[in-house]
Amino acid sequence: MNDKSPLSNQEVEQLWQAIQTANADEAHKRKRRRVWLTTSIVSAACVAGLLVVSLLIKPTVAETDIENFARHEPPANYQAPNTQLILSDKQTVELKEKESVIVYDSTSIKVNNHPQKIVNTQPSTYNRLIVPMGKRSTLTLADGSRLWVNAGTQVVYPVTFQDNRREIYVDGEIYIDVAADATRPFVVKTKEIDVQVIGTEFNVTSYDDETVTRVVLVKGAVNITDKSNRSETVLAPDEMFEHNPSGDRVESVDVSLFTAWKEGMFIFRGDRISTILRRLSKYYGEEIVCDEASGELRCSGKLDLKSSLDEVLRGLTITAPIAYSREQQTHVINYQKNP
């Protein structure tokens, strides 16, 4: 299933030119900001000292608000054929592999194990990784934190983190192994919640088109802030936090049910067929429809996601009284009464 072929010379040159342009643009922007700030501070000092502080702080807050940046970018296209790496100057690098691998360090970016590292001499602002339906990616950030990014997911992140804080923004589903750094807490921001950690492993599911947001903790500890009511929840290992329109709750869970996807497995226990099919549709990037009767059925089992979707759906018919057929590009599930 995995295509680990290296980037073509044209793709490498495209990425290299995009990063150089981003670096030059960012340096020019910083120079202009310094001039603007100096002029503003001198003028404001004649009026009031407090206004000087305000002018110093406001531009910094606006520029470093990753959540504000993410929400004002064009919507991610999760139906695109390829994974997209969008650099800070809006240049887009297309990654055609089903499972792409992106690694950052303090001086370079390496894509899909390509032997030639691409030097990044200046930190840019924010990059976006958009993984469409049917694709997956792993992303190693400059601090050593590693993300497994599921289908239909966008991650917004800086090339290099601030000296006192590390933040990323997620729409979709990731599993993250956070590199420990007691001096720089790590924050995963979503539309509904913020998850703050120092070093730990957990799964976050927060798709913009779904009403439920979940955090499942594998090890370590996390502090979750609900943005709607500013309440805070501390999770212990093997616990799940769930936010939905009716409120928040915490329960003990088998974490493998929520994290097996990164190993290419799907484990379900008593889940509705409709829920299972929705996850399979995202994972494979193909349309699946079912009738109401089959959608309400519940079943338990394990599916090998390394198999084709046809094979997976045929396997599902063994665990539930359903029939599977295919109509052109659409996979169809219908309830089938027992004889």
Compute the number of strand runs: 23
Q: What about the largest sheet? A: 18 strands, mixed
SSE-based structural type: alpha+beta
User: What order do the helices and strands follow?
Assistant: HHHEEEEEEEEEEEEEEEEEEHEHEHEHEE
Write a brief structural summary.
The protein is of the alpha+beta class and 339 residues long. It folds into two domains: 9-189, no CATH class; 264-335, Phage tail protein beta-alpha-beta fold, CATH 3.55.50. It is 27% helix and 37% strand.
Features:
disordered N terminus; 7 helices; Phage tail protein beta-alpha-beta fold; globular; 18-stranded mixed sheet; alpha+beta; 339 residues; 3-stranded mixed sheet
